[in-house]
Write a structure and sequence with these properties.
alpha+beta; Archaeosine Trna-guanine Transglycosylase, Chain: A, domain 4; 23 strands; 29% helix; 470 residues; Rossmann fold; Ribosomal RNA small subunit methyltransferase; 10-stranded mixed sheet; RNA binding; RNA methyltransferase activity; 3 domains; binds S-adenosylmethionine; MeTrfase_RsmB-F_NOP2_dom; 5-stranded mixed sheet
């Protein structure tokens, strides 16, 4: 460890863990656990395993999750840029698995950046239903949106709101909500030395109070009968068992339910919460000295189906859905259709519902929920970003390249992962090559990675400047 662990932290953990403390503290001398989650929106895990240049071992509680060896660098591989996987340490894979989101549902990831759990929820939803991924801090939303794009997620809206403002807009709206709460980050000490510097006993208390506020907002947005998962990457009982127990005391309409894979985890510890409150032993602790992972706490709660819905009638009156043809919409629809005919002729009926096209300035989106009232909310991404309108022609977005499959495109240039021309493309260079003029989908081993535009013996580079390899 670069930074010594804070004395107040080690003293507390020793008092809590007693005989187990030695094993817990010894885990800090071991290397951090590294994992990746294969993106089933792009390919099945078995197909990735036959392609994978990394040596992978399964994560027991996540069918798409694998540990990789320290020397491997999957973040620096073109398959990462093509969104074939998301890097995530193994214990962080447990909360989204616990939520058990299903295709067609309405799901909220309330504290979402940089998007590890959002991308996992989207995989479970298989592109169907509505996923709202929210991040309160403007500086962190960009990374969230980039990951949503990279993984080819088409049914997510990315918002930059406070939980309270979302709760005003979406009372009793969601089937499932994940609160992967801001926390004191004790489970990050091994991986990120700066987490040690940022820690203090006061921060633990501040986080606990913030967690209760976030959970209150989440409870107001959950439908009767809906499911809420609360998780942290810290060990402090105040932010785990005690946050859940205090929430349950304030919200008797909620009860704890068992987690999938519970037998692989350690139970929550009731004696670390007020024993007069509800039993929190159905929650899970993922300890770094007991499994491969940095450490997590997860609790799954269900809201009674009989919950009073009077809250709904107190909410603001529902506005009528906007008419499909507002200013500029007709031209936007025509530009989109013309682009599809020219560059994506085999798209079939994907993105063909004109009422789902939304225009923000010159940016065209395809919303997963036409008619949803987003007015006045800070929206970073209103759905799948299709592109930018330039003189009534559509310049396709990077998100669109990553969301379609190679078979949909009129023109494809596919490189193998080891081809030096692919690296030149990822660095932003134009490539000399002959081909039919027009927008061309650039692929790695058949998986789209970005756009190029073929003209005059050159493939002009449209790989986004901010993502280019250095
Ligand atoms: C543990 S991180 C989320 C990690 C993310 N779920 C993932 O898997 O990549 C918690 C997030 O909550 C956000 N946050 C901080 N304060 C918040 C608040 N008061 N309400 C909601 N979110 C908050 C942080 O900016 C941070 O991005």
């Amino acid at each position: 460890m670069k930074n010594p662990l804070p004395a107040a932290f080690t003293a507390r953990m020793q008092a809590l863990l007693q005989d187990e403390y030695e094993a817990f503290i010894a885990s800090y001398e071991e290397a951090a656990s590294h994992g990746l989650r294969i993106n089933p929106l792009k390919l099945a895990p078995a197909d990735f395993l036959s392609l994978s240049p990394f040596s992978l071992e399964p994560v027991e509680w996540c069918p798409n999750g694998f540990c990789y060896r320290e020397g491997d660098r999957p973040g620096k591989h073109p398959y990462h840029s093509a969104g074939l996987y998301y890097l995530q340490e193994p214990s962080a894979m447990s909360p989204a698995e616990a939520l058990e989101a299903l295709p067609g549902e309405t799901v909220l990831d309330l504290c979402a950046a940089p998007g590890g759990k959002t991308t996992q929820l989207a995989a479970a939803m298989k592109g169907s239903g509505l996923l709202i991924a929210n991040e309160i801090h403007p500086s962190r939303v960009k990374a969230l949106s980039e990951n949503v794009e990279r993984l080819g997620i088409t049914n997510a809206i990315v918002t930059n709101e406070t939980p309270e403002r979302l709760a005003e807009r979406f009372p009793l709206f969601f089937d499932r909500i994940l609160v992967d709460a801001p926390c004191s980050g004790e489970g990050m000490f091994r991986k990120l030395p700066e987490a040690v510097e940022e820690w203090s006993p006061e921060k633990v208390t501040e986080c606990h109070l913030m967690q209760l506020d976030i959970l209150d907002a989440a409870s107001a947005m959950l439908k009767p009968g809906g499911t809420l998962v609360y998780s942290t990457c810290t060990f402090a009982p105040l932010e785990n068992e005690q946050s859940v127990a205090a929430f349950l005391q304030r919200h008797p309409e909620f009860g704890m339910i068992p987690l999938p894979s519970a037998d692989l985890y350690s139970p929550g510890e009731p004696k670390w919460a007020d024993p007069s409150l509800q039993d929190v032993s159905l929650a899970a602790r993922l300890w770094p000295h007991k499994l491969r992972g940095e450490g997590h706490f997860v609790a799954k709660l269900r809201k009674s189906a009989e919950t009073d819905t009077a809250e709904l009638s107190r909410s603001r009156p529902k506005k009528k859905a906007k008419p499909a043809s507002f200013a500029g919409k007709k031209e936007a629809v025509a530009s989109w259709q013309s682009f599809v005919r020219e560059a994506l002729p085999n798209l079939g009926d994907l993105y063909a519902d004109d009422s789902a096209l939304l225009l923000f300035g010159d940016q065209l989106y395809y919303t997963p929920r036409p008619g949803l009232d987003l007015d006045g909310l800070r929206i970073n991404r209103a759905g799948l970003h299709l592109g930018t309108l330039k003189k009534n022609r559509l310049e396709p977005s990077h998100a669109l390249a990553l969301a379609v499959c190679a078979e949909a495109a009129a023109r494809v240039t596919s490189f193998s992962a080891a081809d030096p021309d692919l690296i030149r493309y990822l660095k932003g260079e134009a490539l000399s090559r002959e081909g039919e003029a027009g927008w061309t989908l650039v692929c790695v081993d058949g998986f789209p990675i970005g756009w190029g535009k073929q003209a005059d013996g050159q493939l002009k580079n449209h790989y986004p400047k901010g993502l280019r390899w250095l």
